[in-house]
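Pair request: fold both.
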Amino acid sequence: MTRTLLKNATIVTVDRKLGVLDHCDLLIDGETIAEIGQGLVVDDAEVIDASDMIVMPGLINPHIHAWETVLRGLGADWKESEYFDVVLGRLAEHFTPDDIHQSTLFGALNQIDSGCTTMLEWCHNTATPDHSDMVIAALEESGIRSIFGHGTPKPNQKEGEPHFSERPFPAHEIKRLREGRFATNEGMVSLAMCILGPDYAGIEVNRHDFALAREYDLMTSAHVWGGDARKTPGGYQTIVDEGLMDPRHNAVHANFFEQDEVQLLVDQGASITATATIEVGVPRAPMISSVIRAGGKPSIAIDTEIEVSGNMFDIMKGSDKLQAAFDSMEAYDPAARRESKGRPDVDGIVTAQEISCDSNDVLEWATINNACAMGLESQTGSLVVGKKADIVLLRKNDLNLFPVTDPVQTIVVHANQSNVDTVFVNGVMKKQHGRLLEDAGRLAAIRSNLAEARHRLLGLATEMGHSIG
């Protein structure tokens, strides 16, 4: 079993008891963090001099559609409706199993390259069992710790066919996977159900879907927004009243939720994931401060690279600043002053700094809180003896990081993908000296395949009457 000793590092544990450890060593024994301390001596370990490194937990991405990587950068200027119409409504059904395999694999490798060691692939393009199997294969091949979130397609309605909101989750597919390759919860890739939820389906479909997840002992995740257009009147209150809610449920977005519904979800043990850099197009704050007020743990994610950056360092910065901006507007709004917990200054105005979170909180959003949202907090999300060795090393001497006055603030405010020197996932080195440890020929082949798929898909979009570029 491989043993690796990281020597003399600045270790940001993301553990409130341990904090930041200076001039400290960390021993990786196989898959696990075996020891943390100063002056460790291990005779049979490979030694890495980490004296110029920040050692931190791998970032965690609890909501991404990596199957869409082939269309990366297509929709940054889109209105929200264009994504649903063009990508989900029209193009998704033209993805072959090979397209979705190559796209997911390339997206997952990028997550590792950018310092993310765990992701939940929220895949709503599972048109056939072959599509699902190829996404799972891609996650396995990448080596990332992951959850395959099995969703359902959302095409534009065709004449004579029911709308996707009327279709219950395919029980036969969950049975096939749960009794086959996901018969246990062990392994680097596990299974979840990405259901329609109360916003996109009526109560009958929700009864079916939540019951199916409970039958097969699976966590669920749902896209939700709130507001008047919900398919299940009453939203999550109805789900709870019906006895359907499971504490492992994850709600994504939820920007138009009132505080009482946020409180309801937190009280039920559920998580809420904000994708702030995507959600900035709607005139409501990301669900970060609202979750904090409810006593919950904020969770943040990327969503889709069609519209935003695909690395969690950018998402940390964006989530922090966007939430602070909304908090500031609230603080300066006299009508909303009663919601603020800050102290009025001499002019009677609450400052943003007094109501916003600090850098330790923000780093927790992207690590241990996201692990909690995925049900993986016992395995990953912080550097603690006994947890899996999902570890990232950042170069402290890089021009954009040096001098490192405060390592946590350095990570949250200044670090980016270019600073990632080394990545371990489950104790396996996946990146070293700033280079992803993948065969160059294999990456070139994936690029070639994706270029061909992109050309074909964009050609179809043009034929459908949508102007690209």
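--- second member of the pair ---
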Amino acid sequence: MDHGSHDSHKAMALLKTARGQVDGVLRMVEEDRYCIDVAKQILATIALLKKANIVILRQHMDTCVKDAIRTDKGAEKIDEISMILETYLER
């Protein structure tokens, strides 16, 4: 992955925000906050992680997969993406 790209920075920002939310959720549990409020924050964190994963996967397809296909080594990369998609669809 091109770690200097716009997409990498976007993914990192989403992940850092999710990390902050996890810290907030931990504080909420420590403070014995209302369960539904905690659950809502957990769902918000999951949504951020999913967004970050989509950004990373899109970047992977735009770089690694395209490069592998150009050099006739795309089958492995396509299998990797298929495995990830299967995991998404199972949930």
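Observation on the second member. The longest helix spans residues 35-70.
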